[in-house]
Amino acid sequence: MPGVSLKPFDLLANAVRAKEIAIVLVRHGFAEIIEQIETPGAWWQRFVPAPREHRSTYERIRLAAQELGPTFVKFCQLLSMRPDLVPQSLVLELQKLQDAVQPLPFSGMQKVALEELECDLAEVFSEFNETPVASASLAQVYYARLKADGRDVAVKLQRPDLQKTVEADLDLIAFFAARIHHYIARLRPFDLPAIVEEIRAGLIQELDFRHEARNQQYFNAQNPAPDKVFAPEVVGQFTTRRMLVMERVDGRRIEQAPLTPEQAKALATAGAASLLHQIVISGFFHADPHAGNVLVTTDGRLCLLDWGLAGHLTRRLRHALADLFIAAAAHDAEQVVQIGLSLAGPGTQPDHRTMEKEVTIALRENLNFATGHEQIGLLILKVIGIFGRNGISVSRDYALMAKAVLSIEEVGRTLDPEFDLRLIAQPVLRELHRERWSPKALLGKTRTLFASAFNRLGDLPTELDRLLRRLEHDDLTVNFQHRGLEGLNEALRAASNRIALGVIIGALIIGSSQIVTTGIRPYLFGYPVLGIIGYLLSALLGLWVIWDIFRHGRHK
Q: Do 433 and 449 belong to one domain?
């Protein structure tokens, strides 16, 4: 079956887990799908009780993911960051998934630490608290103290054998996705196998904590306001693929921090300004700054945690994003659509009127200045969804950006009920405007343009000399390829054949008439035999031409 990447032997090896997944899906009301994809040995589903409570389809997907464990939770969290691929209602439901699970005993986690350090814990840490301070689907975090310099650190350890478990679960997800794509036509437009492969790559990358460490280090190096927002400093000496050691940050979750209204408002402004600077100016940003990943420190700063997922925007994408913000603020649906078309790939032909209508409705519902109902993050999610439904596949990082903006709006409103992201965005957009259109920027663009033109002019004599040499040695070949002219060639061939036959028939008739009038012998029925033969041949050829015209049609 095309699209199924899982071999039968792999399915057999994971038969118990595959059956467990199928049972959970049936229990949450997806028995019809299991029947349609013809899962081997699905007779047992008759004995699985149907769900009693009436819930929406998307809510049942979320509950099933929670029951199936860490891989499915993380998979659905990453899926929620692709509003251009899945419905917006599903995106909002999956964002409710909580990445917190029961902690494992330290004995299992200690084994990971020993394997990564390749020595005993006491050789690196003078103290190590065996009680985890956080437990997520991929890792657990512990507090410790470095033996070398006495620094207090946080140690993030990956759950044991997680890579093997995740890869096995991803293979099974790919198996089910491929069968759904093959057997259920109404879900085929979503291209589930392609979505699974894209999310697989992101999830496997998150399993390498060195990637997260590099993200934290890069942010701190580019951060213009470390006195307001920062990421924990990484201790690179002890950071490996499954172990991340970083400075311990003393702080509280946003909802637990004792803040005055003025302090809360200042923090909301600082956090939003930092994220917008990351997105619009740096082009590198934290992709999941929800409340659980933000701490308020004892010295009144915001600390961004969990840098496993970060977005990257090129200069072209940043400039398009700024234009999108400006067009949305002006409620210019036509300009929003034009920006979307500029991001589309070749051959995309969306319905402009339908897109403009949908964008207009989205702007009215989510950016209504008259009523004060402004949800920029939700608006971006809807616009990206509109683009996706119309065949415009935007960059994955745009979807990550939309999720980040939505999260920071939620955090901002938690701190400040009067939080207005639009006001905070204005100075950042002005800074980007200076980057694009300042005299220095224009001079740089002009210099680059002229340098490129002069380089091409410098190459011109060499290219002309090469062309003339080929002409001199008769070594120049020009290939033309005509497309869509096959029918014309055939029609011209048929027409020329009929014209030639017409000329032959006319010549036979004229020649036969001259023979008859001159009376050349021998005779047949009183007429010259050659003349009669010429008339018969011309009549037969004429009848054949008429029959051929009627048989193939006049257009031939």
A: no
Q: Is residue 388 part of a domain?
A: no
- How far is Cα of residue 237 from the mean position of the Cα atoms in its chain? 35
pLDDT of residue 328: 87
Q: What is the CATH number of the domain that holds 229?
A: 3.30.200
3-class SS string, 307-331: CCCEEECCHHHHHHHHHHHHHHHCC
DSSP annotation of 150 reads: -
Q: Is residue 337 part of a domain?
A: no
Structural domain of residue 463, as residue ranges? 442-475
- CA-to-CA distance for 121 and 106, rounded, in angstroms? 13
β-pair type (294-297, 251-253): antiparallel
Predicted confidence at residue 483, as pLDDT, reads 64
Has residue 154 got a pLDDT over 90? yes
C-alpha 91: how far from chain center: 14
pLDDT at 482: 63
Looking at residues 486-514, what average pLDDT do you find?
77
Is 75 found in the same domain as 169? Answer: yes
Q: What CATH number did the domain enclosing 297 receive?
A: 1.10.510.10
Which residue do the tokens 């979503």 mark? 190
Q: How far apart are CA 259 and CA 269, in angstroms?
A: 14
Backbone angles phi and psi of 329, in degrees to 5 = -60, -30
Q: Given a cut of 80, is residue 490 above it in pLDDT? A: no
Pairing of strands 152-158, 134-135: unpaired
Total number of domains in the chain: 5
201 pLDDT higher than 70: yes
* Rg (the chain; Cα; Å): 36
pTM for the whole structure = 0.72
Cα 349 from chain centroid?
Answer: 19
Contact by Cβ (8 Å): 295, 249: yes
